[in-house]
Write a structure and sequence with these properties.
The chain is α+β, with helices and mostly antiparallel strands. It has helices at about 10-20, 25-30, 35-60, 100, 120-125, 125-135; strands at about 85, 90-95, 110-115, 140-145, 150, 155, 160-170, 180. It has two domains: about 10-60; about 65-180, SH3 type barrels.
Length: about 180
């Protein structure tokens, strides 16, 4: 196993310390109507998102394919933005904005985009061709999703998300024609 090298986050920590917690002029905005527990959670998320962004910047936005997915899926009562769903033999991804998915009943329908399986092309591709594939093969209507390793070791994908193949489904808990790919 190779040695793990993480970027030096001390400079980031110094900069972040100046903005988080917020400067006194913004305390009122953060504190109004917010309990101590809610404030702690909000500031923790805020700090983690900045650490995440700093790590991405330090690695030129290159990430390991496993960072794209939560496997197994976090326990949730309903589907959410970014979930991969299967209908028959076709995989889809939920693209409805997260803000519209946050509250049950806010939206009756969920937008999904078709995911085109490109596993055969991926397996045959050399490093140059794989770079082209990761760049969406130069087509702005599609987005690359890397292969996903399941909890049993099986691999799914990779796919091109086809934003020119979008449809809507009713958002119901008993919509049994769909199941999460990660299950």
């Amino acid at each position: 196993m190779s040695e793990l090298h993480l970027p030096d986050l001390r400079d980031y920590a110094r900069r972040h310390n100046k903005s988080c917690p917020p400067p006194p002029s913004r305390w009122k905005y953060w504190m109004d109507g917010t309990s101590a527990a809610e404030l702690h959670t909000a500031l923790t998320r805020h700090m983690i998102s900045h650490v995440h962004a700093s790590l991405l910047t330090a690695t030129d936005d290159l990430v390991h394919p496993e960072e794209w997915y939560f496997v197994p899926v976090p326990q949730s009562a309903s589907i959410t933005t970014g979930d991969l769903l299967v209908r028959g033999d076709q995989t889809h991804i939920v693209i409805t904005p997260r803000c519209d998915m946050a509250r049950e009943g806010k939206t009756k329908y969920v937008q999904i985009a078709a995911c085109e399986l490109i596993a055969d092309d991926w397996k045959k591709a050399n490093s140059g061709k794989r770079k082209d594939i990761r760049q969406h093969s130069g087509k702005p209507v599609q987005h690359f999703l890397p292969p996903m390793r399941m909890t049993d070791g099986a691999e799914r994908g990779p796919w091109f998300v086809r934003f020119d193949c979008v449809t809507s489904i009713e958002r119901t808990p008993d919509n049994v024609v769909f199941r999460c790919v990660n299950n």
